[in-house]
Design a protein that fits this description.
142 residues; mainly alpha
């Protein structure tokens, strides 16, 4: 009976050790092999967004210029001129799709900023009118 227990305990340790070694090998393989190709598309994906945002920044109003520039920094990397252009048509299409998505985001943000600017201008105008009315009320009181 003790002999069976001793063998089952030894077998259990062998199984646990084997699983631990397999898990460690899998994590090492994933870290070394899979991590490198995953970081390459991120660099390729942001190859041309700066040219799109530069034209928008030039046409934007001075108050909105900083906001659009901050958005472009958040969406793309700054080392765009040194990155390779994808030769594979599928990768190039993915690149174009991502750039189009970024362009749509920037256009949506530009329209939101313009609407906010118009609302702020209208609010300032209303406040000025309110101040004039209050000044008239104060002046008319004896």
């Amino acid at each position: 009976m003790q002999e069976n227990r001793k063998h089952s305990s030894l077998l259990l340790w062998i199984v646990i050790t084997t699983l631990a070694i397999l898990c460690a090998g899998l994590f090492a393989w994933q870290y070394l092999v899979v991590k490198e190709p995953a970081s390459a598309p991120n660099k390729i994906n942001s190859a041309q967004p700066n040219t799109h945002t530069a034209s928008e920044v030039q046409t934007a109003a001075p108050t909105q210029e900083a906001s659009v520039a901050q958005t472009s920094h958040a969406l793309v990397n700054q080392d765009l001129t040194t990155q390779a252009i994808p030769q594979n048509p599928a990768l190039a299409q993915e690149e174009i799709d991502k750039l189009n998505d970024i362009q749509k985001q920037l256009q949506a943000q530009e329209s939101i900023l313009k609407a906010q600017q118009q609302d702020a201008d209208k609010l300032i105008q209303l406040k000025q009118e309110q101040i004039k009315l209050l000044e008239q009320q104060i002046a008319s009181k004896p």
